[in-house]
Amino acid sequence: MEGRGNGTLISGVPPEFSEAQGGVFPYLQLIWNQRRPLAKAGSIAFAASLLLALLIPVRYQSVTRLMPPDNQGSGLAMLAAMAGHGGLDSMAGDLLGIKNSGALFIGILHSESAEDALIRKFNLQKVYGRPKIEDARKALESQTDISEDRKSGIIFVAVTDHDPRRAAAIAQTYVVELDRLVAQVSTSSARREREFLEQRLQAVKLELDTAAKNFSDFASKNTAIDIPAQGKAMVEAAATLQGQLIAAQAEVSGLQQIYAAQNFRVRSAEARVRELQKKLDEIGGDDTSNTGKDDNSIYPSIRKLPVLGVTYSDLYRQTKIEETVYELLTQQYELAKVQEAKEIPTVKVLDVAQIPTKKTFPPRTMIVILGSILGVCIGLVWIVAKQQWEAVDATDVRKTLAREVVATVHAAVSRSWRNGRAAGPDSNLQEGTGNYLSRESQGR
Hints:
This protein has 444 residues and is mainly alpha-helical. Among the domains are: 60-187 and 344-351, FepE-like (Bacterial polysaccharide co-polymerase-like, 2-Layer Sandwich), CATH 3.30.1890; 206-324, no CATH class; 394-444. Helix content is 71%, strand content 6%. The protein contains 18 helices and six strands. A four-stranded antiparallel sheet has the order 4-5-3-6. Strands 1-2 form a two-stranded antiparallel sheet. Strand 1 and strand 2 form a beta hairpin. Helix 7 (112-122) packs across helix 9 (133-142). It is rod-shaped and about 175 Å long.
């Protein structure tokens, strides 16, 4: 049954009822009459949406949270210098709030140095299918969400990936790279002092090793353990020997007056005198002694001690100077390291990135529901549009123009297919198009 009212034909609705009621009721009647095609369209949309939801790869998100940087002292001054702020006013303004330093941390996380380190470590060019490093960076940025809470200043690093373990590992590596880069590009005075002391320590260590070796070689060659102590001990020993020698000579003189020269006691006393004289000559380094006497002695003679003492003192003094300088530089170096650690803001992790167990994408239930609703809506639009099209008079200018557009499109498609298809299908297509246009020209 067909009805016509105000130029609109609604199939399945009595004309007098349609004209009397008007409004949306005729469309509701139309929808009821076309409920089976709508149900079919909804079923197809449901199946397509379900298939699409199942085909979309699953994604997991791992989040790590960082505490805001310390807002104290030269740490922020270093950060401001890293940011490259211009005037003193703007630098001072940036040092007053946590937001700017937190934004600087975010900027470091977005830097190419941090991203390239992650790309190399996890081979993300292969994972994302991006042979060029620039494309891999863009892919990594699209999978990473780095933001800062304005009130608390807490920094969020969220990484999305198809592999939950890789997502957690990338989020944790972001923190490691942030800590490394902050320490690497530090421009604090403590860092510059520490670097200077580090270089100075290396130079002084070489000088100390050289001085110690020279002193050791000299002491070993000349048996110079401690020249002042050795000199004192040798002088005391020489004095003792000298006293014993005088006593022995007096004893020999007394025995010679009593006994003959071949007497056993006289010869024994004379031998003792010679032995004491020999030892005294060795200690004193007497030139009248045997030539090999000093060479066979373990320790240097008293005559050599003054000469050896000068060189010994120079080497010993140089060694002690180098040792003192090295000790002082070592103390200053350790203090500079402590000060540098205080000035460089450390990355404090509030929540460590955990391996996610729940997927964050795709929302399959929502996709299926929205897809089904969209399919039903498309079916409704198609039914209403079809009824509106059929209600338009065949002689209407708009309908005539539409037919001409359709004919032109079909002709263009037919010409594009002629090179690749046989004449039979083209003829059938043209014949079907001609039949369609002839039916449209005849009207209802």
